[in-house]
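Can't paste images in this forum, so I'm doing it all in text. The chain is below; anyone willing to post the predicted structure tokens underneath?
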Amino acid sequence: MSNTRDLGHGMVVEALDGGAITVFRGQKYSRDGVDVWAQAVINDIQGDHKNIAHLHDMRNAPVVITPYVRKKLQDVGENRDNEGYVAIVMTPNPLTNIVRFFAQRDFKKDQPRVEIQLFFDYDEALVWLRQMVNQPK
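Text version of the structure:
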């Protein structure tokens, strides 16, 4: 069962598996959408979720890594107490490797206890995330 909220500016947030997994789904790319996404992630990781399990579904919102987007990624990474897993789902294109580089370099530096994986298939990402969440600690 899922719980979906439309945050506006092309951003939808969905809670899966009783809230164990949070899906952030971008429907379009805009500066306002980036702001809404960043604030939604920050709100989630500053709440009761010290162990995060996020799936960022960006297939319908091709992300361009601008200095503004990089700054928002840094803002999201400021809370270093979290640990967990992040799956990013994107449509394969020539920019995907650049996004992978920035995600793994910048976010990993800010969130050393968060494992990040890039996927091209939503179902594969969700299976991986569920396996990570349900593995024995």
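The longest strand covers residues 51-57. The chain has a mean pLDDT of 84.
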